[in-house]
Write a structure and sequence with these properties.
Blueprint: E1 5-8, H1 12-17, H2 19-31, E2 35-37, H3 47-52, H4 55-69, E3 76-78, H5 81-94, H6 99-109, E4 112-114, H7 115-122, E5 135-138, H8 142-147, H9 152-159, E6 165-166, H10 182-185, H11 187-204, E7 208-211, H12 214-227, E8 232-235, H13 236-240
Parallel strand pairs: 1-2, 1-3, 3-4, 5-6, 5-7, 7-8
């Protein structure tokens, strides 16, 4: 039986600010039984420009992403719900009036998956034999939960952690305040949202707060540190690779 090969799209934030997420994702996928390839030439998926309303720049980046990934067969897996949602849903918005590009975007969307979704729904994997003897909670990112409807999958993976004590995060479905360019455009509101999220995490007394989006992780991690809350942020991939 031939081992399937997946294409790992590292994403900008993970690759730039927390490359361990990328390494961990590759390790987890390999442990789950697939070969991992890092396509050469990928840059940004275009989400920041799309969110800011600069759709011309977003289209240029989307076209580049499509052209690069069309050279690689197999599924595309990302350790970020936000970038997955951009490719799966918003590329169709960008190319709504360009039939040829729209068709190409739909073909890519059909083989693009967020990490937990790919593990649980495609590979049928929940238990990777990970021993994680800590008190943990989970922050579901907005794009993952609302845009992609992915919640069962990361929770199934967390439930399979050996030795872990899971505690539900109060108001878990509330945004942490990052929101892509939202935190830059409305910093006061974003900070207030972050402070609420940090207070809810502190209330769990968890050793680790786990999320599946690098952007939320970086934003909340800063808030926890400034507030003196000892809970540490971890990406789901980092936990599964431990």
């Amino acid at each position: 039986m031939t081992t399937p090969t997946v294409n790992l799209f590292a994403t900008c934030l993970a690759e730039t600010f927390r490359d361990n997420i990328v390494t961990a994702t590759e390790k987890v996928l390999t442990r789950a039984g697939v070969a991992v390839r890092r396509p050469q030439g990928l840059t940004c998926c275009g989400q920041p420009a799309f969110n800011a309303g600069d759709w011309d720049d977003a289209r240029r980046m989307a076209r580049h992403t499509l052209q690069v990934l069309e050279h690689y067969e197999g599924d595309v897996v990302l350790p970020a719900g936000s970038c997955t949602a951009m490719i799966r849903q918003h590329y169709a918005d960008l190319f709504a009036d360009e039939p040829q590009w729209l068709a190409r975007a739909r073909r890519l969307a059909a083989r693009t998956y967020e990490l937990s979704e790919y593990l649980v729904d495609v590979l049928g994997v929940t238990d990777l034999g990970v021993h994680f003897p800590y008190r943990v909670t989970y922050h579901p990112s907005c794009h993952l939960l609302r845009r992609l409807g992915i919640d069962r999958q990361p929770r199934a993976l967390l439930a399979a952690l050996h030795g872990a004590e899971f505690v539900e995060l109060p108001h878990a479905d509330e945004c942490c305040g990052f929101g892509g360019v939202f935190s830059a455009e409305y910093p006061e509101i974003a900070q207030a949202m972050l402070e609420r999220k940090v207070a809810n995490i502190a209330a769990t007394q968890a050793d680790f707060c786990i999320t599946a989006d690098p952007s939320c992780l970086l934003h909340i991690q800063g808030g926890l540190k400034r507030a003196g809350v000892p809970t540490q942020m971890r990406h789901l991939a980092e936990v599964l690779a431990s």
